[in-house]
Every structure is written in C-alpha cells, then in structure tokens.
Amino acid sequence: MEIKDMQGEVDRWITQFEEGYWSPLSMLARLTEEVGEFAREVNHQYGEKPKKPEEAIGDLALELADILFIVICYANSLNIDLEDAFKRVMAKYRYRDNDRWTRKE
Fold this sequence. Notes:
The chain is mainly alpha-helical. The chain has four helices and no strands.
C-alpha cells in the first residue's frame, strides 16, 4: 500500500464520524501516548525492565502501526502530502549524511 493510499484510508475512516480529526494539540498528546506505549514494549523486550510473568508480550508491529496511524491523521488534518514529505526528507538525509557512516563493501 502506498502512503497516499494509507492517507486516503485513514481519511475515510476518520471522516465517517461527526467529530472528525482531533485538534493538533490533542493529536500530539495521542502521538506521545502511542510512542510511550512503543517505548515501554521495547524496554520490556530489549531493555532492562522485563515484564511481569503474568503480562503478555506486546506486539511491536502494532505499536508502530498505532504511531503511523496518528502521524497520518496529523498529516491529513494539516493537508500534508506524506509521500512528498518523505521524498524531501530522504533527499535531506542523502545529502546531509552521505559520508557520515562506513558503507558496506
């Protein structure tokens, strides 16, 4: 699925409800919450804080997808084309970081 298709699917989901997109500050709070949930799960799986024996292992992919959903909501609400933004950010990284690390042989 291309990013534009993701943006369209999220928009169709959100706009079916009267409430629509949340305000930018509410979405920032939600994004922060989702990143925290992802961080907690990474810490449990790879960090120094193991889960309690009765706690199930979380799904890192779903936690990342929650973050992606909110990022897409943000972009849609602010009329940002994420495909274009992604192309521009990759160009920035290619220019800025071209010689930063050792290339594989």
